[in-house]
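Researcher: Next entry: Pentatricopeptide repeat-containing protein (Pisum sativum).
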Amino acid sequence: MYPFFKQTQCLHSSLSHCSTLLHHSLSHKSSNFLKTVHAHFLKLGLNTYTYLGNRCIDLYTEFGHINDALKVFEDISYKNSTSWNICLKGLFKSGQFGKACHMFDGMPLRDVVSWNTMISGYASCGFSSHALELFVEMQGVGVRPSVFTFSILTSVVSSPCHAKQVHGRMIRSWMDLSNVVIGNSLITMYGKFGLVDYSFGVILTMKQLDVISWNSLIWACHRAGCQELALEQFCCMRAAELLPDQFTCSTLMSVCSSLRDLEKGKQVFAFCFKVGFVYNSIVSGAAIDLFSKCNRLEDAVRHFKEQEQWDSALCNSMISCYARHGLGEDALQLFVLTLRKNIRPTEYTVSCLLSSVSIFLPVELGNQVHALVPKLGFESDAVVANSLVDMYAKFGFIDDALNIFNEIKAKDLVSWNTIMMGLCYNGRVSVTLDLFKELIREGMPPDRITFAAVLLACNYGSMVDEGIKIFSLMEMEFGVKPEEEHYSYVVEILCRAGKVKEAIDIVEKMSCGTTPDIWRSIISACARYGDLQATEIVATKIMESSPQTSLPYLVLAQVYQISGRWESTVRVRKALGNRGSKELIGYSWVGIKNHVYTFGSNQLQHYGGKDIYLLLNLLVWEIETDFNV
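Model: Predicted structure:
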């Protein structure tokens, strides 16, 4: 028994002393200590006091004991708004969403804190649209939003249009937009959608900028792809005599990763050493990512091994690094090691592993990773589900991929794009087009990847009219400007249908500029349909734009030979021989158990390759022998 409990009369005479006891519970970080204090309150009849009850509820929710908190809540004689709000917050924190909504509906008085707690709770559970609806309802009952209200809303907006509406609502609510907290939230909000100009507009309205302001602006530039502009903002930050923090350094290294600029990245890394940030897991993770993207795998591995403590962020970076360099088995081994160290994997960890498995490892390992998903509670996570769909589609198990897609409750555009690409590559052309129509009916705007999948499906299915129609509606109806891949698919659709002239007309009108790959599709079609004049024109264009390739010479020689122009054939072949061009080598691979076998140019690049080819030769000999007999 603790000594101070002997002086029970002190508890009767001084509520402040009781509050001190509760404070000791938090400082000791002991739920047992808190329960002991609470038990003495019950003996002394102090459990009905509002202030002490509120403190107990707050502490129980901090320790994750929501049931004990609810019991304390019931014992309070006079429940004020603070009592309700603390309990409401605790229910959300413990994941009891339904009970929280029921309590909110039964509250006698809802102040701005109550509404903020509900909006924040909806947002934390992923119900962004409901959070926005609740905000509208809040204003409808006459509750004035606070700075915190708008701070929550800026984190849940789902489109640039909603972002501008929230900003406009702030102005109409007479919010002080020069406030650094509001300003920082707006910068981050606009940065999320790549609206860098709006982020700079917010900066101009702020009277004071702190480190978070500059971090948000640098991050906004980085997310929008304006990497050089992000580095310029860092220079401005230093000119304002503000010291960068860990988030600044991690963002800067991500900028250098995007630029593939190892030298600038090393300068940031050296600064981290100087100020002591190098062992921060976020900074170290960014450094590993920098080394990985700059093809310095050995540096990434060395830096990872130098870390004294591991956490999920650091291990995620290293697993992603292994996966990026084709070391799928190493990524899987590190994952197993993190489990042994009781480091809980995140959704990103599982996503990286599934990407690694789908490229480098057998499907059995993918099934094992999939089995972990429900155990980790990630079955409703969109990122993990999308990775599973992608993995099964790449392995050819398209029905399994489609089942997982259908089970995703909140499908984002990545989900639709992933399954449509998977269906397309597995020959399910009609299903791909059906899903595209369903996507349009759902009101979700398609992007360039969506149209790439649909046009590729039309190409594989030889749907000329459908493909041309979709291509023409891209920019006119959906505002998606066609890029090189879209033009190449449409050109191939036309070329397969023998409409070479229409294909050439489209290529010559390309807004993004022609590329050798597109002309290669056309020249192959010209040769296939025996159009000598068109073949010569296209071959000349390819020779001018891509002089190192041998394709136009080979096609011309073939067409001249078919046409009986033997002198031209000899001349082209001689020109090809004088160029000394090298043949492109194609590769294929197959995974058997835990090994990946790679075939290229009549050579098996793996141990045991000679034995395999001897066995193949023996089989061929037996087949020929049986045939001759």
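Model: Note for the record: The beta strands are 587-592, 595-600, 603-604.
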